[in-house]
């Protein structure tokens, strides 16, 4: 009995040490993370996100207003990160973001297209590791808008007062100020 208990204790310790080593070795370098800007077009009821300041300078004169930085993302593949794709449906005037290749393909079959390029808009963590925080995805059926936020208070307010429903955690990004 003692040997079984000792084995279980040692196995648990080995798993804990192994998990912590995996987490440390699969983190991207926070110094490589860049701001993930959020803009909103009130007339079209459309949220739009990008890590590219030049894109903000292009899109904001078209009616988008910069709302701030949602968090930090990577613009190149980093350890432990996965592609975060941006798709757009012109009939719905809706931008949609996903880490799921299956969801990306399904969206493309329903009228969404990538933004003229087949590369992801950024790279984010698929699980909560490396000090990352959830990027919540919400959806407004009346506004046909996908909305993403890292703020729990903003998420709750959008559900209670903005007509949005919880969809999922889209992925995990680094908080502002972590670099």
UniProtKB/TrEMBL annotation:
Pfam families, per the entry: DUF5648
InterPro entries in the record: DUF5648
Signal peptide location: 1-19
Start and end residues of each DUF5648 domain: 35-174
Keyword Signal recorded: yes
Keyword terms of this UniProt record: Signal
Record's protein name: DUF5648 domain-containing protein
């Amino acid at each position: 009995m003692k040997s079984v208990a000792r084995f279980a204790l040692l196995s648990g310790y080995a798993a804990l040490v192994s998990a912590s080593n995996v987490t440390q070795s699969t983190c991207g370098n926070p110094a490589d993370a860049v701001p993930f800007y959020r803009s909103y077009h009130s007339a079209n009821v459309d949220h739009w996100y990008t890590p590219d300041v030049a894109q903000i300078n292009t899109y904001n004169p078209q009616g988008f207003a910069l709302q701030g930085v949602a968090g930090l993302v990577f613009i190149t593949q980093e350890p432990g990160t996965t592609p975060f794709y941006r798709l757009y449906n012109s009939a719905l005037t809706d931008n949609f973001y996903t880490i799921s290749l299956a969801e990306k393909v399904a969206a493309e079959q329903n009228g969404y297209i990538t933004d003229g390029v087949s590369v992801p808009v950024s790279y984010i963590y698929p699980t909560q590791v490396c000090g990352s925080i959830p990027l919540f995805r919400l959806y407004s059926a009346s506004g046909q808008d996908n909305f993403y936020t890292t703020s729990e208070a903003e998420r709750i307010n959008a559900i209670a007062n903005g007509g949005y429903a919880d969809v999922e955690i889209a992925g995990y990004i680094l908080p502002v100020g972590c670099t």
